[in-house]
Amino acid sequence: MEVPMSPLFTPVRVGRYTLPNRLVMAPMTRSRTDFDGTPGALAAEYYAQRAGIGLIVTEGTQPSDDGQGYLTTPGIYTPAHVAGWRKIISAVHDRGGHIFIQLMHAGRMSHPDNTPHHRQGVAPSVIAPGTGMFTMAGMQDIPTPRALTTEEVRRTVTDFRKAARSAIEAGADGIEIHGANAYLVQQFFAPSANTRTDEYGGSLENRARFAIEVATAIAEEIGADRTAIRLSPGTTMWGIDEGAEGPDLYRHLIAELDRLGLAYVHIMHQGNEPLLADIRTLWHQPLILNRPGRPRDRIGADLASGLADLEAYGQMVLANPDFVVRLKADAAMNEPDQNTYFGGTAQGYIDYPVLSARADTSSRPEILN
Fold it and tell me: What does the pLDDT average to over 164-188?
């Protein structure tokens, strides 16, 4: 028996699109691409299976050779990448879905063995993250990165711009800048990773500059209403410490990004409720909120309270291609198999069971244009 209609299942305007519901598939690295960054053969089915969710945000996708950090992650900067993504996006669109490609530059979270050029990682400053990374040779310490020159920072902004254009050429509905989880954009925010003395370091305004320039360049290239950003204020993973000024940096950043009229901001919430409330006030476009580990009985709570316009989920969507159908029916969820998260075959990727044929989004009446 289906549960009563919830605001979760009502349409919402995000950028230039009307989404059929307010649920979002959070970006999740799956490490199943070819070594050159071309999406793997099973990726089209993986994403298409989940097209019933309001918006799919893809796994982190590097904008350049230097942007790659992990083994077998996708790129979106060569003709082969574009062709591979075009198959995926076409499959999602054929089932009525919407999909944004997340552009992720790993920065110092990189190992040369995982990249096509086998070069030292790049970062705001010469500071290692102090952790290891999986490679074909097993776990290895991440080497100390090389600091980007000021001109190289500007060229990296251009790399993001070109990758966004390639994403649109592949048919993507838009792109999400990965400004979270200790990767390059957030490395610029954190004094523990950024000791620069040029215009990209020092003051909070300078440390926010790279993110603002990337967002501005992409918005100019593909339209602000197809451009978005993900942030994780307060993240302390992998040596990131944004310091006492961290909340003020985000208040400044959100206010500046708001001027651009982006499609949405996607917050991975780390627990600072006053800052989250300020972000909600400062941001005038749709807000997507991801609370890691949110229990089933709290799904929809942030939407109901008015704190968010959409809610993002990762592992539950990974394990339940028919996530929306199960929520509507108040049905049990599949448990994700953590052993198959990264790399591998169809197992744990495209073989999670669905409730019934109702999970086939090609015949679902609630799917809009």
Answer: 98
Which residue, among 26, 84, 25, has the nearest Cα to 54 in the 3D structure?
A: 25
Structural domain includes residue 362? no
CATH code where residue 98 lies: 3.20.20.70
Q: Annotated catalytic, 341?
A: no
Say what percent of the chain tops pLDDT 90: 92
Domain that holds residue 40: 7-356
Which residue from 219, 232, 204 is spatially nearest to 312, judged by alpha carbons?
232
Give dist(CA 55, CA 24) in Å, integer.
5
Geometric angle at alpha carbon 124, from 105 and 216, rounded to 5°: 60
Q: Classify strands 55-61 and 23-25 as parallel, antiparallel or unpaired.
A: parallel
pLDDT at position 5 is 58
Do the domain assignments include residue 243?
yes
Q: What DSSP element (H or E) covers 92?
A: helix 79-94
To the nearest whole percent, how much of the chain has pLDDT over 70? 95
The string of pLDDT tens digits covering residues 254-280 is 999 999 999 999 999 989 999 999 999
H or E stretch covering 299: none
Catalytic residue among 17, 70, 77, 183: 183
Nearest alpha carbon to residue 333 among 346, 318, 351: 318
Task: Give how many domains the chain has, as a whole number.
Answer: 1
Q: Which residue in 42, 114, 80 sits closest to 344, CA to CA?
A: 42
Has residue 352 got a pLDDT over 50?
yes
Distance CA 307, CA 305 (A): 6
Average confidence (pLDDT) over 209-232: 98
Q: pLDDT digits over 52-97, tens only?
A: 999 999 999 999 999 999 999 999 999 999 999 999 999 999 999 9
Tell me, yes or no, whether 312 lies in a domain.
Answer: yes
CB neighbourhood size of 141 (10 A): 12
What's the rounded Cα separation, in Å, for the pair 114 and 116? 7
Degrees (nearest 5) of the Cα angle 68, 70, 76? 40
Whole-angstrom distance, CA of residue 106 vs CA of residue 25: 21
Residue 2 lies inside a defined structural domain of this protein: no
Residue whose tokens read 């230097």:
66
